[in-house]
Write a structure and sequence with these properties.
Layout (H helix, E strand, L loop, with lengths): L5 H11 L46 E10 L2 E11 L4 E5 L6 H8 L9 E9 L2 E2 L7 H7 E4 L11 H11 L5 H14 L3 H4 L12 H13 L5 E5 L7 H14 L4 E5 L3 H7 L2 E6 L2 E7 H6 L4 H7 L5
Parallel strand pairs: 3-8, 3-9, 6-7, 7-8
Antiparallel strand pairs: 1-2, 1-4, 4-5, 9-10
Bound molecules: adenosine-5'-triphosphate and magnesium ion.
């Protein structure tokens, strides 16, 4: 996406942002990236050797989740979640099945609203816009956030090219050269261009699972999202395809903010800057990934990341 220059970027945004402007707050880059390539799950130590903030405070969060509760048919699925997400970082959500990770992602982009009988309460502030304010248009929120699901879901009847172009066309962009440029840049951004550049007319579903997942990432990138939400994006992929997506995430965070749900502890430790551990609808512990995996403060976190349950 580096090729996508600023004027093109703002031109796309002008065309797709037909509701209201959303000023972008630049986060201070005061926290170091805590992972290195090839990290494996570090061993848990009882006493911190490094000084981690006792109360981690994210300055100028891109997204601030405040007192969020969510219900399905009156049953509480998320209990008072408070979590700040730092811009241009990767935040991993971990926790056992059913603890509310997907529900949290779906609250963030207001997909939760689409489930009959689902309700939510609290605030989610994107820059300075409350996503749950009555006046906030959910369509605008969805445009500012891309989502990638566990199972790659390219549009089955569309070519590779049209899969990436679909959202732009749907938003009324007609300039063929502009669409071509964005498709090209998005496929580059998703590290797929070299593999598909001669097959753009072939069906999206003719690609391998790993390629389909990168096609879905390209489709999301074409809309110039500020936040990319990924729900177990590699769980259906082999290790090579998974590592391509992990490398890609590292590149993507230069331009956007990533929140990833993963059951793979090694993956969370390798790719993320921050980790949030959830259990039974609650946020148990949040911190720099290094701290969570090496020096968890809560016994429950330690038991989960060391595989004692889950
Ligand atoms: N559409 C739905 N209708 C009713 N209850 C739901 C629905 N989706 C999720 N739930 C409930 O909400 C809770 C949280 O589910 P969620 O899918 O967010 O968990 P998760 O952490 O993503 O789990 P997994 O790791 O298995 O994907 C669970 O108790 C689940 O049964
Ligand atoms: Mg889930």
């Amino acid at each position: 996406m580096d090729n996508l220059n600023n004027s093109l970027r703002s031109s796309i945004k002008d065309k797709i942002d037909d509701v209201s402007p959303h000023p972008k707050t630049k986060a201070e880059t005061d926290v170091t990236n805590t992972h290195t390539e090839g990290d494996v799950l570090p061993s848990i130590k009882s006493k911190p050797e490094r000084n981690f903030d006792s109360e981690l405070k994210i300055e100028n969060p891109k997204l601030s989740i405040q007192s969020l509760k969510a219900w399905f048919s009156g049953k509480l699925a998320l209990k008072d979640i408070n979590l700040d997400v730092k811009e241009n970082c990767i935040t991993a959500l971990i926790g056992p099945s059913g603890c509310g990770k997907t529900t949290l992602l779906r609250c963030i982009n207001r997909m939760h609203d689409l489930t009959p009988s689902a309700t939510a309460d609290g605030k989610i502030i994107l820059d300075d816009l409350n996503i749950y304010d009555k006046q906030t248009d959910p369509v605008l929120i969805k445009r500012r956030m891309g989502m990638v699901f566990q199972k790659p879901n390219p549009f089955p009847t569309m070519s590779i090219y049209d899969n990436v172009a679909a959202g732009l066309k749907l938003n009324g962009i007609k300039d063929k050269n502009l669409i071509k440029e964005i498709v090209h840049d998005s496929l580059h951004g998703a590290a797929l261009w070299e593999e598909v550049k001669n097959d753009l007319d072939k069906p999206g579903i003719s690609l391998s699972g790993g390629q389909q997942q990168r096609l879905c990432i390209a489709r999301a990138l074409a809309m110039q999202p500020e936040i990319l939400l990924m729900d177990e994006p590699t769980s259906a992929l082999d290790p090579i395809a998974s590592s391509k997506i992990e490398e890609l995430m590292n590149d993507l965070k230069k331009n956007l903010t990533v929140i990833i749900v993963t059951h793979n502890m090694q993956q969370a430790a390798r790719v993320s800057d921050y980790t949030a551990f959830m259990y039974l609808g609650e946020l148990i512990e949040f911190g720099q990934t290094d701290q969570i995996f090496k020096y968890p403060k809560k016994e429950l976190t330690e038991r989960y990341i060391s595989g004692k349950f889950g």
